[in-house]
Amino acid sequence: MQRLVPAGMVRPVVTVAVVCALIVTTLAVVFSDQRVASAFDQQVYSMVYKQFVGERGVLQAMLVPTEPVLLIIVLGLVVMVSVARHRPRLAVLAVVGPLLAVGLNGLLKPWIDRTINNGSLAFPSGHTTGMVAVLTVFVVGALTSSRIWLSALVIAVAVLVTVIGTVALVGMKYHYVTDTVGGACLAVATVLVVALGIDRVAAKRGRTRKTAASGVAL
């Protein structure tokens, strides 16, 4: 079966996952129990507000990539296409990766207890976590492509969609920008770790089967 993470990319992928995990941890410590925006959050919000003043409809349209129902539909399509193309590992990742990322988000929010507006839990951003987790599945799916331009294109589109969604979340004042950074990093770290785990478990099962087959042959 085709690996999710090519052997030559394991180290870079591990590095990205660790860096993202460190960012989430650092932000969680800094913003734990916070009830107001940081100076940086306020500055970013002011910039977004100036760009989209009077354009609430545009911001709402930009929120579409963060909608859970849409993300579930997309993941369902990914699973079906992955099975049809004989990529069971990618199908498993499309289910387990985002689900675990969103689950961790739900556990972290009350523990970190950062709030926005009327006391709504804000860090990490759940909508950002879900969106970026799905996008990361696409990126992982493209890692094995022999066409470098395709992998680069998928990454570029993923970054663009992430920016669009997070700008909308900040502009609508549903989240501070640091909430979206935390959500994105949580998603990337979780999905990459799950991808590496799937590869490792599959490789171990493959070795076990070979050993068993050798024993039978003897």
Strand and helix order: HHHHHEEHHH
Mean pLDDT across the residues is 91
End-to-end Cα distance: 26 Å
Number of helices: 8
The secondary structure category is mainly alpha
**What Rg, in angstroms, do the CA atoms define?**
19 Å
Major sheet strand order: 1-2
Poorly predicted parts: none
Strand content: under 5%
- Helix fraction? over 70%
Q: What does the largest sheet look like? A: 2 strands, antiparallel
**3D shape:** globular
Number of E strands: 2
A few lines on this structure:
The chain has helices at residues 10-31, 39-52, 56-62, 68-84, 88-112, 126-142, 148-171, 177-217, and strands spanning 115-116, 120-121. With 218 residues, the chain is an all-alpha fold. Strand 1 and strand 2 (120-121) form a beta hairpin.
Describe this structure in words.
The chain is mainly alpha-helical and 218 residues long. It contains eight helices and two strands, in the order αααααββααα. A two-stranded antiparallel sheet has the order 1-2. Helix 1 runs antiparallel to helix 8, helix 4 packs antiparallel against helix 5 and helix 5 packs antiparallel against helix 6. The radius of gyration is 19 Å and the shape is globular. The mean pLDDT is 91.
